[in-house]
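Inputs:
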Amino acid sequence: MATEEKEMKVTRGCNFLVDEASLDDVFIPEEFDEEQQMVGQLARDFYDGSVAPVNDEIEALADGVTVNLLKEAGELGLLSVDLPERFGGFAQTKAVSMLVAESLCKNASFNTAFSCHTGIGSLPIVYFGTEEQKQKFLPGLATGEIIGAYALTEAGSGSDALAARTTAVLNDEGTEYVLNGEKLFITNGNFADLFIVFAKVDGEQFTAFIIEKNNEGLSLGAEEKKMGIKGSSTTSVILQDAKVPVENVLGEIGNGARIAFNILNVGRFKLAAAVTGGGIAAMKETVEYAKGRQQFGRPIAEFGMVQHKIAESLSRLYAARSAIYRTAGYIDQNIATIDVTDPERDSKVIDSAIREYMVECSILKVFCSEALDYTVDEVVQIYGGYGYTQEYGAERYYRDSRINRIFEGTNEINRIVVGGEVMKRAAKNSIPLFARAKALLDELTGFPDLGDDDDTSFLANERKLVNQARKIVYLAAGTMGQTLGMKLQDVWGHEELLGLLADLIMETYAMDSAVLRTMKLKERGAPDVDTFHSALTRLYCNEAMARMEITARTLLSAIVEGDDLSMALSGLRRTAKYAPANTVALRREIAEYAASHDDWGL
Amino acid sequence: MKILVGLKHVPDTETKVKVADDGVSLVEAGIKFVMSPYDEYAVEEALKLKEAAGEGEVLLVCAGPESATATLRQGLAMGADRAVLIQDPRFDRADGLVRASALASVATQESPDLVLLGKQGVGTDESQTVPMLGELLDLPHVSAVGTLEIVDGRFTAHREIEGAVEVMEGSLPAILGCEKGLNEPRYASLKGIMQAKKKTIDVRSAADAGIEDGALGEGKMVVWEKLDLPAPRSGARILEGEIDDQVVELVRCLREEEKVI
Ligand SMILES: Cc1cc2nc3c(=O)[nH]c(=O)nc-3n(C[C@H](O)[C@H](O)[C@H](O)COP(=O)(O)OP(=O)(O)OC[C@H]3O[C@@H](n4cnc5c(N)ncnc54)[C@H](O)[C@@H]3O)c2cc1C
Ligand SMILES: Cc1cc2nc3c(=O)[nH]c(=O)nc-3n(C[C@H](O)[C@H](O)[C@H](O)COP(=O)(O)OP(=O)(O)OC[C@H]3O[C@@H](n4cnc5c(N)ncnc54)[C@H](O)[C@@H]3O)c2cc1C
């Protein structure tokens, strides 16, 4: 990517809502260079050679298995892919770290431990630590000698993380903070050496601390008995007069929210990469099963309704993966503009380069975790009765998937982030959404533009559908802005609306990302783009447009009435009008391709 | 100690190959090529010997198409020091002697203390390169080495044969073909991958390596006439009922249906 990267320009967050992206600015996973592909291969080899053989031990939470694997991953450099070089890292792009994340996901439990360590367990120090803290902890985190954990949640404060009740009080000498409270559901709890703990100084100022395991006031609760990811450790962390030296305050006093939320952005997009890789791997196994399982004298892979499940899953996973690498590319392009010698670089990376794409990060988290849930549900179904037993992987994939809609911010909270942040940026005019909405109204009250329906160029219809999707967002956001205005600041009073708007925005990003990737593959002369990838894209866009019309109707009906509603709905009908493709045929094509090819290039 | 390791760039054993329209080559689109698995043991053994000696050089050599640089890069990332690619797309379907001659030319120039190869290259699995290279260079050669010891310029190699282990001793330089189980090949770590980028791959033409054009083209000694995929397996059957009845049924099937007993 190195040379191509330089030619890419920085794209603003949420820009997909207002501009058609130029293919040059969109990164696709097919652009990884030889060396980057080798890193991905290393992660896959490590999974196959070291993780897969001990799957059962991991699931049983056998002593030391996960820790030893993390250490081995550390020796190989897999824990420090995107850490700065001066602390033993390899300073690779975020896109490469996604490639690693998606390769380790076939065991969701190990992946949870890995992601927690490399993400929320290490990155707070990378981005917010002092030079001394970095020197003290990062080399150990990079090799796995120190395992990290992140303790934000409490019994009384989950989604509402800032309502934490753990307190921190400075001692009289001013040398130590004394922490009291209990953190709940802490991943890697059982074996972590270092905890990033959030507490309120004097019961008010939300602050992050670095607490080491050997701290006398720190103890652990029992392992939670969970529905899935049973091989990941989840414990409570109890702080009883835990004395933490002032040097271990992370960031500034009162700065905890900034740390907590910014780090979640990274957690979210890494989760997205991991779950998408997991979904593809699960479907791969399932297609093999369906090819071998005979009923009514034929492999069930040949039955249309089974093909429906396969194709639908693949089209969602394709859109998901396209959006993941596109977002990673944007973040990497943005990071590349920050001077490497800038002493504030690390905090600029997280505070500006990554935060800029917080909407995209939340979209990915929701979209990909839901694509995985859809996929594993159909995986169980395709396995039939065997999918319900523990003999095959299906049952485990199904259980393991469920957590992804809950942690790293529940999907409800992330939908509020997407809808709320877009409305906020629109109100500040940092994205010209309302201007576009106004232009759309003018267009809708004028003569219908019949357009050039005879455009037969590659994916012409789908490109049109993406433009229509953007317009549906303008219509929805514009109507919300106009009728609700400042009232929207009362988020809780309007959260269903923000959630519906988020769904429209997510569909738009998914459609747009799939179309752009397929266009770029076409431009690069990739094999099978005219058959497989274009079918995936067409299927996704057609189905998404149908869903969007329903969602937008629900939304509009909730905010306007009478004649205004009739007008709005007729505008919606005009905006959402399209000639549907034969999606039944598309699904068959996709499933047949999947059954006859090893490498799907999703 | 200077160790030369020969590598072959082959289709991944996991991929399902398709025969191209010409009937003698594979459809390359969609096939992943990798370092031949037996060669991984050779690279690992070379690296271990070098590490144990505390000095030395591991040189990789491959006769293959331009894309084989990926395999060489993989070996460099595992820790080898440098690499030579004798590049010609026709090496893919050349005969063993041509490939062995190409390796011999580099071995003659570099005069290594030891040459390690995989015992065979997966894909065509001819197992010819080790003995041919040994004869071309007039050096001792042993293939399918499962355990190796090197002391004072002599090697002791164990190879499993039917029901026994053969122990061969000889002097260096020698040509040894590595068998599965000789060692546990390491992963190419991130550090290795980053360092590999800075190592050189010296690309030479077949002519540079003393291979006459004819040997790769018209005048080939071995010509591939036709490639066929194995016939698809027909349906398996699971016998049911009491175990005694199953045995009777099995014998009947073997005798009457399959006619093998
Ligand atoms: C296996 C596992 C591992 C975890 N690992 C960690 C970890 O390492 N570190 C850590 O700090 N935490 C961790 N967590 C905690 C996790 O982040 C929380 O469970 C999550 O944030 C949700 O909080 P909660 O469970 O208290 O649910 P609640 O906040 O009580 O939410 C319950 C439901 O109400 C919904 N809800 C809440 N508020 C709103 C709203 N305003 N509008 C609409 N719906 C709303 C939620 O979406 C959810 O559906 C982990 C949890 C699990 C299960
Ligand atoms: C907990 C449990 C309890 C059970 N209890 C009993 C019991 O008491 N008695 C009993 O006799 N059985 C029982 N069963 C078996 C159960 O009825 C079967 O599992 C079920 O009928 C599905 O058959 P299968 O598992 O062989 O799946 P398959 O028939 O192999 O089906 C696999 C998938 O292919 C799909 N499929 C198959 N054919 C077609 C087609 N033509 N078109 C489209 N899709 C197709 C199926 O819908 C399914 O999604 C039980 C199963 C379980 C898991």
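The longest strand of chain B covers residues 57-64. Flag for discussion at group meeting.
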